[in-house]
Amino acid sequence: MEMTSSTKQSVLITGCSKGGIGDALAQEFYSRGFLVFATARNLAKIQHLKDLGCEILALDVTDENSIEHAVQYVTKKNGGVLHYLINNAGMVYQTTILDVDISAFSQVFATKVFGVVAMTKAFSPLLIQAKGTICNIGSMSTYFFTATNGAYAGANSALEYVSHQMRIELKPFGVSVVHVICGAVQSNLHTNRLLPSMSPSSLYYPIRHLISQASNPSFIQENIMSSSQFAETLTSKLTREKKPAMVYLGSGLWVAYLMSFMAWCAGWLVGVRFWDLVSEGPMGMKALKGIVEREEREKEKEGKKLV
């Protein structure tokens, strides 16, 4: 007998634009017979999921009215229950702190942290009714303290803490919370990132090419986990009877483990300055220091000539 909307297990996934992790997860859950609510800010980017058979919704996780509309739609469509909420929406914004656009920096946190909290709060009655599961997609960037990545890594670090808080607080109501540390996965996240061009007036302009090279994700796009493989593995873990508290999934995670271990070991000697050493070469900070010192010497010489 074919399952109706009211008898199917349901999942709502944020950030399902074509070519990303959310897209792959929506297709994987749908293939397993779930009622899938695939969402994105732009419906045109998820039309292919509607053609597949998923329910699609325009959803901006930073907009309370948009979230409330989604709650009403899911409630009406699925009888007031939601079995899985996957908070996947996110954005990448890379620049130096001195060149930062505060509104863009804030938007990263609004999407990855405040949006997750707002979605969880709004959908909690449906999740509690279903004894459901919340899955928050984080990143291994949490373990790297490097230049230009403060917004993305900072938001994901905050999200991990929020996930732990959620897990503790929602457990009494039968709701499971799973936090995912996502390694390198083929997706459109970096393709759609905010990487502003550097102004010639920037103090970092002399090393712009080094920063651009270090921020360019093309070197991790080869031999990495496909989004479909990621989705298949994660879906299997989420649909187990006993949910894991943490999931580490994706390519390159061994680098995060190694760097974290090295940082811990180095901490006994140099503390967090270990990451200063890591960033000096690849990010061009050592080269910039040399440029600044050379300019200061030249200014000093010019000053002596004028005297």
Automatic annotation (TrEMBL):
GO terms for cellular component: endoplasmic reticulum; lipid droplet. One of its GO terms (molecular function) is triacylglycerol lipase activity. It comes from the Eukaryota. SMART domains: PKS_KR. Residues 9-184 form the Ketoreductase domain. Keywords: Membrane, Oxidoreductase, Transmembrane, Transmembrane helix. The chain crosses the membrane at residues 246-270. One of its GO terms (biological process) is phosphatidic acid biosynthetic process. InterPro entries: KR_dom, NAD(P)-bd_dom_sf, SDR_fam. Belongs to the short-chain dehydrogenases/reductases (SDR) family. PANTHER family: NADPH-DEPENDENT 1-ACYLDIHYDROXYACETONE PHOSPHATE REDUCTASE, SHORT-CHAIN DEHYDROGENASE SRDE. This is NAD(P)-binding protein. It comes from Hyaloscypha variabilis (strain UAMH 11265 / GT02V1 / F).
